Amino acid sequence: MPVLEAIYIAPARGQPMQRVERVVAMAGQGLVGDRYAAGLGYYSGRYDCEVTLIEAEVLESVAGEDHLPVLEGQHRRNLVTRGLDLRSLQGQRLKIGEVLLEYHRPRPPCDYLQRITQPGMTKALGRGAGIGMRVICGGLLREGMVINVEETASFTRWLP
């Protein structure tokens, strides 16, 4: 069963990510206290970047196989999931408690990540660096919550 393993926010661009046990997601904005919800993120105004997700398993793989540990929050993603293949979510929504997130786009690793970690990090993360999602319905997110996958109506196949 997929779960929300960790939550991170950063108050402004370039500031370290801070782990929090709970956070409020706001529809059409992002997470309270995070740079993107406040319009202060590097990609604010250029890309829809309300909430970003990364798999715990990807971080563990990079640390184990590539010997490149990603320290607390250095991944620059808001939500760390476990038991969920994020790359398979195109056209789907995630329901976490009362919060509804909708897939937006892949989020490849950026050059900033490479600068704050170590050489080879962006290559090691590659396509597993996470995804961006939009907040459709807001509410409270807490670490340990179960994640449910829902298909969106626009991607539903109707039989004749």
UniProtKB/TrEMBL annotation:
Instruction: Check the record and name the PROSITE patterns matching this protein.
Output: MOSC
Task: Tell me where the signal peptide lies.
Answer: none
Q: Which Pfam families match?
A: MOSC
UniProt-recorded Gene Ontology molecular function terms: catalytic activity; molybdenum ion binding; pyridoxal phosphate binding
Stretches assigned to the MOSC domain: 18-150
State the source organism's domain of life: Bacteria
What protein name applies here? Answer: MOSC domain-containing protein
In which organism is this protein found? Prosthecobacter debontii
